[in-house]
Amino acid sequence: MLDLARPVSEEELRRLSELNPGYQWERSPEGRLWVSPTGGESGRRSLQLAYQLARWNEERGLGVVFDSSTGFKFPDGSILSPDAAFVEREAWEALSEAEREGFPPLAPKAVFEVRSASQDPEELRAKMGIYLRNGVLLGVLVDPYARAVEVFRPGKPPLRLEGVERVSLDPELPGFALSLPPLW
After folding, report:
1. What does the record list as coiled-coil region(s) (predicted)?
2. Are the CB atoms for 151 and 138 separated by under 8 Å?
3. Domain coordinates of the chain in residue numbers?
4. By CB atoms within 10 Å of each CB, which of 29, 65, 116, 159 scores lowest?
């Protein structure tokens, strides 16, 4: 986490991302910068999760799936890049072309985070809170080190599951069950 003399603008964040490929730049609601490079296992796990989500969406055509390189601009001013995200088609199509090209100003319906070795689970839980406060309806935190998954929904306590191979994410993602063994 970087505490700078002033909050970084959206354009500055975009430029940092362009100049520093391979790093994930995010802006907290307070204007702090979070930066982390993706290691091999983290990249593999995130891609596997995004692949499962994209395959499910291809079969149903309900929306658009994004990988970890996409930053979303949330109502509180934060710009966050979940490891994978799902946006309903109507919400995506309601954006202008300029909004689609930049950091989309919307809350995805569902976001996914896969813990890396360098990440503190409490920081990721706090990030899930930011997502939910900004309109995300489903947050999924996969912790391959604990072989656990936590499912977050607004107004409900997180559901923690250990020792399971699949997690159904109905009703938010109808018919989608996340297969966990490829993420371990």
Report:
1. none
2. yes
3. 39-183
4. 159
Burial 38-76 (b: 16+ CB within 10 A, else e): beeebbebbbbbbebbbebbeeeebbbbbbbebbbbbee
Token pair in block for residue 111:
């976001």
Q: Which residues have CB under 8 Å from 114's CB, separation 6+?
A: 42, 45, 46, 49, 83, 142, 144, 183
Confidence tier at 14 by pLDDT (50, 70, 90): confident
Neighbour count for residue 13 (Cβ, 10 Å):
19
Residue 184's nearest CA partner among 158, 160, 166 is: 166
Rounded CA-CA distance 138/19 in Å is 32
Instruction: Tell me which CATH homologous superfamily contains domain 39-183.
Output: tt1808, chain A (3.90.1570.10)
pLDDT at 178: 98
CA 16 to centroid of chain Cα atoms: 19
Q: Which DSSP letter does residue 156 get?
A: S
Using CA atoms, how far apart are residues 72 and 78, in angstroms rounded to an integer?
Answer: 8
